[in-house]
Each structure stands twice: as C-alpha cells, then as structure tokens.
Amino acid sequence: MAADAYTASIVGEGGAPSVVRFYTWSPPAVSLGYHQPPNAVNLDACRKLNWDVVRRPTGGRALLHKGDLCYSVAIPAETSNLNTLRNLYQQIALAIRDAVQAMGILTKDPTDLSRLPKSDVKLHAGLCLDSRVRGEVATDSGKFAAAAQRVFQGSILQHGSILIDSDPGEIAQVIHGDRRTIAAGLRARACSLEKAAGHTIAMNELIANLVNEFSQRLEMEFQQSAWTEEELTQIARLKGDWAIMSSDSNLDEVVSHVKQPA
Question: In the chain, at which end, N or C, are there fewer CB atoms within 10 A of the end residue's CB?
C-alpha cells in the first residue's frame, strides 16, 4: 500500500509517467478501505490466522488478499471530474474482461450492473465482495474482480483485485457477525477464475494479457520497469502510514511493474 501511495504521489507531482503494477501478497492480508476503521474486522482473529491488516490508499471495503492478483494504476489527473473517474473504471473493467476472455473464460458485460449476481440480502456492509458496482467483472459463476479509486493531488489511483484461486468466503473468519451465513453468501456471489474456468490459470499469461489490454484501453505504451534504490527507501518510510497490524516481512511481491516511457 505504501508503494501505491508513493506511486500516486510521484505521478501527481510530475515525477513519473503513468504506472501500472501487478502484485501478490505474502503473507495473506486483509486490506481495509481508506475510510474504514481498524475494527471493521476482528483483529484477534486475523492475528491467529497470521493475516496482516492494512489500510488502502483508495476507498472501498474489506478484502482478503490470498490467492488473488492485485493491480494498481496511477495516472495524471488533468481533470478529476466524475466522467473521468467513470471512464477509467470502465476502461479497466473492459481490459480485464478482454484479458480473461482471451484465455477462454467467458465474462459478463462489466458496464451492465443488472447482469451481476443479485444481492437480495446484504451480508455485511463492510465487505468488498458483497457490493455490486458498475464496472466490476463477473462470470456466470459470480464476481471475480473488485476495484476502488481515489483522487490525489494531481493523480488518480485505482486499485483492483482479481480472484485467481481465492475462496471468496474465507474472509468471513475475521468478520463480526454470523460467519457461516456470510461465508456461504459470499461464495454464492463471487467466484475465483480457476473455479469458473475449471483449470489452473497461468499467471504469466494473464499478466501479459492484462498489460496488453491496459495499454490499448488506456491508450498508453508501457515498458517494463523496476524500483530504484531511492524509490525503495521512500516506500519503506511510508509503510507505517498504511500498516494496521503488519508482520516485518514484505507485504507485496511485485509480479510486474510497467510504466510509460518518460
């Protein structure tokens, strides 16, 4: 989260072009939306499971990062009106849809909210996978991608999580309330890509597809990049701003880091 906050700040200051990151988590962690309090989840239960708890720089609700692929997109915000935000949300959703469909997995239209799995009963107000928002991608088996945005000074940051081999109901172990009902409800409304496809997902292939589709949808050319020593030092200084209950290990493992050429 510190890395994404840092990226948003340097893009906003004009110190870097647009940046896209793909990463996984180790150890597993629950991320809370920017405005959620730490007690949105049961911290003692998280501790017993050895799950870290962090705060995201973006909005949204609680989400478990275990068996998912995360992305972050930081772009300059020449304008940050509602249309700009909606367009970014929609274009990224379409990019994810096309990247997944290129692997033979059929998805629903992310611009059509009515086609997402219905939530007749609200399971928990603080859970990301229990929300139904236009621009989130789903298969016939349920929602497999979630996203959240935030406007910074001079930049827009969008976070997202794509369920690869995740169990959507696993987060219920650390949620206040009827955990069995919450878990069953989440499993009925969300689904991992591997469960929908019926086979293992090749992470490298998915990331390559995502980079290609992000480039086309956002009309940007990206090149592979890596953190400099100076950037890693700056990010390390920010970690305490986002950790609620964190181990000493590195929270995210960068899978791919691409940016526009300067």
Answer: C
